[in-house]
Amino acid sequence: MTNPSEATGRIARSVSRLPVFRAACGFLGGVLAITVIGLFGGVVGMPLLIAPFGASSVLLFAAPDSAFAQPRNLVWGHLIASTVGLVVFWLAGAGLWQMALAVGAAIALMQLTRTVHPPAGADPLVIMLGGGASGTFLLFPVLAGVLLLLLIALVFNWAVHGEPWPRRDIS
Question: Which residues belong to any copy of the HPP transmembrane region domain (predicted)?
């Protein structure tokens, strides 16, 4: 028969490992995602990384069950916010009020379409501050990068957690 204090000790050790396991998953997922996207961009000769993908990785690998980390939010959030940023830039240029307008409009459109992905709120700023206002920006790096990020998250979260991700439909 097992000593109750030994059983309590085992439970306490396994519970204390949980945050370490989660942190390790977040670390490995983030390293893997950014490395693969960066290397793939080099192979195809197109930049596929933008700063908001780092923040997206936080949600995908540290909080994969969050409503904000769901695939439709990830993909549509980035596409909507980047489209808004490009349209505002093309119509009004880049300045403080244009950046503020683009971020606000991106937030509102993500809310209306139920595709809020907080890291995508930075996409209009990336476009206006980085001069990434070409017509191809929406395809490369945004769409190609976000689809690659989604594929990595699907495989990684399934492999680590042993069950399909996303585990629930957020409507």
Answer: 19-164
In whole angstroms, what is the distance from residue 125 CA to residue 135 CA?
Answer: 16
Q: Tell me the one-letter amino acid at 52.
A: P
Q: By C-alpha distance, which of 121, 115, 76 is closest to 101?
A: 121
All structural domains of the chain with their residue ranges:
4-161
CA 120 to chain centre: 8
Q: What's the whole-model pTM score?
A: 0.87
Task: Give the CA radius of gyration of the chain.
Answer: 19
Q: What is the pLDDT of residue 162?
A: 83
